[in-house]
Design brief:
The chain has 643 residues and is α+β, with helices and mostly antiparallel strands. 15% of the residues lie in helices and 35% in strands. The mean pLDDT is 96.
């Protein structure tokens, strides 16, 4: 795969089903390199596979399709051709006709959900402070008044300042012409993830309204009248609650949360009486079950009378399970070496977006124990590119701890130079989904080693928490053990090995080359290198040190890669984005200066107008330029043996 083959990707998401389960809709995202933009359309298909998917809308950016419960309407979000055009709700009749714009929110709509009677839509939209964010045409961003900051949580990467544009919950009549939305939530708080009660009279949403909300990550469930009125708190400010869904009888609410706001906690399933009369009760075991797939975006719970269906992480896989309400043993509905990205059910039909190591995801229908693949969105890429499979590798760390990962080997004649790639997080996982970076590097002739060391998700809560306050030590040992195991394959050249990673992976890259000279070269991207300044400059720094690093100055210094810059002899390329507020650019600049003053071999590549998510959702031309820079660096330092 080449960098420009990004244009061949077709990525489905946000599936929805008609109430009879006969028809599915999904949003399909693609990358337009000619226009240097992302495009998305709504596609529909019969769930029996009797016809191929067909494009249903043709807007530049149509996404988040949702059929109404009566099956008569399809609502979706549409953004305009201009990047400044914010996504708004549109509704169109399923029987045919043109979409009708429903909202005109100044900062756009973030998500939507139909009422049970198919007459109203609840949605989330940010409400800007007057005179900011384009609300006054005569006041451009550079001429806005100064901001007075009084809270810790005042900014968010890839968005910017947030305290002066709080997200609120609204309800709008979906069928009336020129309907005006009713704001359901109120106050100087954030609100998210609305869900309707079965009778359509109430809405549950997530918010943090407790006095110490600025100093923790806890959140609560609130229930408010759909017509507007005071919200009632349901949970007890002991959990970071999310993804609420009413039980079918409306008497209780399902939701997801870890046991507290500490690092590396597995997200579990919980239930609580809808009136808040009892404390929440956890249904899933904390050590084994993690029902939060960070890579998939917002996941909706699928509630039955006596159970709930959702995904769970498992050693690089993401499976769909049915969790009984009594806490008894769950049933795996979709398993195997693959990932269920999203899912939806109507009656006996479940439709899911399912990926594997050679696919970003296809639409699959499951009915009466049988499954049928409904789409072929990955066909163009598969026909054009020789995609390379993931080969499983198991290793043992020096302390006896098991380590799990994979190698993606290139085609051609070995031995191949090797790149150890480290994921971000750290509480995320590599797994069974086509990884464009590994395919691009393998396409250029490099074997790519991917691992989930201690600190990663999907291997139990103890695994995820094992690096807390010992950041860089057990996890680096795991990665080196995995690399050694991979290098037992004679096709891999142990003399030509590089290391790279972004975010936590960037931290680990800098950490490794500060502790060993075994790598020929390194690429550290959007890294955290110095926790002393990270605490104040990052949007999450104020909390990150408390849960992962600790607050003792000597321990903070000992866990910061910059501390070991004088021991770095490996050539380094530092890649960073100017507008990264998660790992701010000063983290790269401090390392660059420390290495440059020693006359070490180091270069820094800076991308303008990009945030922390450059490699995943940055401007397409920037993503291609990044790939070109990475491959140039490896060519310079891991060149073929006979070059």
């Amino acid at each position: 795969m080449r960098a420009t083959d990004l244009s061949l990707l077709r990525i489905p998401g946000a599936p929805s089903l008609t109430p009879d389960g006969q028809r599915a809709a999904v949003a399909v995202t693609r990358i337009d390199l000619d226009e240097n933009a992302y495009r998305s359309d709504i596609w529909v298909m019969p769930t029996d596979g009797s016809a191929a998917p067909s494009r249903y809308t043709n807007g530049p950016k149509d996404f988040w399709p949702r059929y109404s419960p009566d099956g008569r309407w399809l609502a979706f979000l549409r953004a305009g051709e201009d990047d400044g055009a914010k996504p708004q709700i549109h509704v169109m009749p399923v029987a045919g006709g043109e979409p009708r714009r429903l909202t005109d929110q100044p900062l756009g709509v973030e998500r939507l959900v139909w009422s049970p009677d198919s007459t109203r839509i609840a949605f989330v939209a940010r409400v800007p402070e007057p005179g900011r964010y384009g609300t006054d045409e005569d006041v451009p961003p550079g001429k806005e008044p100064p901001r007075r900051i009084t809270s810790l949580q005042f900014k968010l990467d890839n968005l910017g300042y947030v305290f002066d544009r709080r997200p609120h919950v609204f309800v709008i009549d979906a069928l009336a012409e020129d309907a005006e939305p009713v704001q359901v939530s109120s106050g100087d708080y954030d609100h998210a993830e609305p869900a309707w009660s079965p009778d359509g009279n109430s809405i549950v949403f997530v918010s943090a309204r407790h006095p110490d909300r600025d100093y923790d990550q806890l959140s609560d469930l609130f229930v408010a009248p759909a017509a507007g009125g005071d919200a009632v708190q349901v949970t007890r400010t002991t959990l970071p609650a999310g993804r609420p869904t009413f039980a079918l009888d409306g008497a209780s609410i399902w939701f997801c949360a870890p046991s507290d706001a500490e690092a590396g906690r597995n997200t579990g399933l919980w239930t609580v009486p809808a009136d808040g009369s009892e404390a929440p009760r956890r249904i899933t075991g904390a050590e084994r079950w993690d029902v939060d797939n960070f890579a998939a975006g917002p996941l909706e719970l699928d509630v039955e009378r006596d159970a709930v269906r959702t995904v769970a992480l498992d050693r690089g896989a993401v499976h769909l399970y049915r969790f009984p309400a009594d806490g008894s043993e769950p049933e795996c509905l979709i398993g195997g070496r693959r990932q269920v990205q999203e899912h939806v059910r109507a009656g006996e039909v479940t439709v899911a977006i399912v990926s594997d190591d050679l696919s970003m995801g296809e639409v699959v229908a499951f009915r009466e124990g049988q499954e049928k693949v409904l789409s072929d969105f990955g066909a163009r890429l598969a026909r054009s590119v020789a995609l390379r499979p993931m080969v499983e590798v198991n290793a043992t760390s020096p302390d006896g701890y098991p380590v799990h990962g994979w190698v993606v080997k290139p085609a051609g004649t070995p031995p191949f130079p090797v790149v150890l790639a480290v994921h971000g997080g750290p509480f995320t996982q590599y797994g069974y989904r086509l990884f464009d970076e590994a395919q691009v590097y393998a396409g250029a002739g490099y074997a790519v080693v991917l691992g989930n060391p201690r600190g990663a998700s999907g291997y139990g809560e103890a695994h995820g928490r094992a690096i807390c306050f010992d950041y860089g030590n057990p996890d680096s040992a795991d990665l080196l053990a995995l690399l050694d195991a991979a290098l037992e394959d004679p096709d891999l050249d142990g003399e030509r090995v590089g290391v790279m990673g972004g975010s936590y992976g960037g931290f680990m890259t800098t950490w490794l080359v500060g502790h060993t000279d075994r790598f020929r070269a390194a690429i550290s991207e959007r890294a955290c290198n110095a926790f002393d300044s990270f605490e104040g400059s990052s949007d999450i720094g104020w909390e990150f040190l408390r849960v992962y690093i600790g607050e003792d100055p000597e321990k903070v210094k000992a866990q910061s890669p910059l501390t070991y810059a004088d021991k770095i002899n490996t050539p380094m390329l530092l890649i960073h984005s100017e507008d990264d507020w998660r790992c701010p650019i000063e983290q790269a600049q401090r390392l660059f200066v420390a290495l440059k003053r020693r006359r070490a071999e180091v270069e820094m590549l800076i991308f303008p107008s990009e945030g922390h998510e450059l490699s995943r959702s940055g401007l397409p031309s920037h993503r291609v330029a990044r790939f070109e820079a990475v491959l140039d660096w490896w060519q310079r330092h891991l060149q073929p043996r006979d070059a």
